[in-house]
Structure formats: C-alpha cells, structure tokens
Amino acid sequence: SINALMSAAEVIVPVDLGFFSIYGLGRTIRTIEMIGERTGRTPAFSILATMYDTRARTMRRSLAALRDQYKSRLLSTVIRFNVDLREAAAMGSPIVEFRPGSRGHQDYQALAQEVVSSDLQMEYEAMARREADEHRRVEQEVDEKVEAVYGAIVTDTGVRFVCHAPGAKRVQIAGDFNHWDPQNTQSEMVLTDEPCVWRKDVTLGSGRYAYRLIIDGRWCSDPANPYVESNPYGELNSVVEVE
Fold first, then answer.
1. Per the database record, which ranges form the AMP-activated protein kinase glycogen-binding domain (predicted)?
2. Are strands 228-230 and 236-242 parallel, antiparallel or unpaired?
C-alpha cells in the first residue's frame, strides 16, 4: 500500500517474468518516485525476479531485458519456478519448514544472504562516511584553534605574531613594518613559557602588511596564516590587515 511504501526505508519489489507483471513493475516504480517527490524521501528499492522457468525462452529474454534496463537495482538472486513454493503458500507454511532443502528454499536462502550482505555493505559505507565526516570536523576545529592561537593576531595596538616552531633555536620576522631587515630590532621573536611557541608584539597603524618568518635562517611564510600573496621571487608572503 501507499502507507507501507511511505514508511519503508527499503523496498524489494518482486516481479514474475510475464508481460503484465513487468508492466506493473513500471507503475510501482513510478509510485515510489511520486512518494519521493511528495515527501522528499525516496525509499531505496531493489527488484526481485520470481517464478523464473529456465525452460521458457520468453522468460530468459524478459530476465535479460530486466538486467539491461534496471542493472544494479535487480538483485542477483532469481527465484525459480517451484511447485513446493506454491504448496507451502497454500498450506500457510514457510518454505523452510514445509520443504527444507528444496529448490525454493535454496533460492530464498540465497536471497536472504544477498540482502544481509547488501545491508552490511551499506552499513559499512555509512560508517565510513560518518568517520570521514568526523575526521573533517576535527581537522576543521584544529585549524580554527590554530588560527585563533597562532599566526598574526590583530590587537588594540597593532599585531601579535605567534609562531609554533618545534626544535627552532631562533625565530625572526621580517616585513613591510621593519623594511624586510632581519637585523632590525623589531625582527627578533621571543620564546614564550609555552614550549616551542615564539611571540612578537609589533605596534602598527592601519594598513596592509606583508611579512615572512625566518626560522633558524630559513625564510618561509607563516603556516598559521592562510592569507598570502606572491612576491617577486616566486615565493609566498603572508599578509595581515590592520583596520
């Protein structure tokens, strides 16, 4: 029923391989798509070929046509025609109890294994997506914390430059504000009480300033400052703006 389709997360649509059943399959799929349009949530659906008689050429053609048209939506398992299935239905008994080991029982057992395997695969993929999302979230939080703690931080009097440089013995800063001179008195950064963290407060007025760090004699852009621009030497200068 429509209510059942609306409440379902996943639907298996059984179809025997006669003409009218295949025609009805198209109408069922259109109904599922209509539910998705109205509710914004389309149930996942798979198609199960049933009542398959390997002796009938028309059924072989119908099965091939289904595979060509619906591809991944058609389940690999095919329920073959089997008298035991009809008798079990007439007796109101599941095939596993009515005729265990029969061909009908084997086919439905294969179907159950395929559905369970598919569910496990979907669960694994969903778990992988959740882990990837969580990893991206943590990375973003770390980046935001790094930007808040390190880099060029605008203060009331100018800019506080904070650099995390593990193992460094000397850290300097050169830029527009000290004529790019590492020997300038404003170039030396001071090692703080926090391990590997260097700091320099520079009094600056409003404007846009380019700068680079010099870590043990090696010039580099500020890794904690995402704002950069190219310089005439083909390298990147970090940039900070003071309003």
1. 166-243
2. antiparallel
**Which of these CATH numbers, 1.10.760.10, 2.60.40.10, 3.20.20.70, 2.60.40.1120, describes 150-242?**
2.60.40.10
pLDDT digits (tens, 9 = 90+) for 142-165: 666 655 578 998 989 999 999 999
Q: What kind and span of H or E run contains 96?
A: helix 95-98
pTM, entire model? 0.47
Helix (H) or strand (E) holding 171: strand 171-175
According to CATH, what is the number of the domain 2-121? 3.40.50.300
Please tell me the distance from the alpha carbon of residue 9 to that of residue 39, in angstroms, as a whole number.
Answer: 13
Domain regions of the chain by residue span: 2-121, 150-242
Who contacts 197 (Cβ-Cβ below 8 Å, separation ≥6)?
A: 150, 162, 163, 164, 191
pLDDT of residue 122: 65
What residues form DSSP beta bridges with 173? 213
**Mean pLDDT for all residues in the chain:** 86
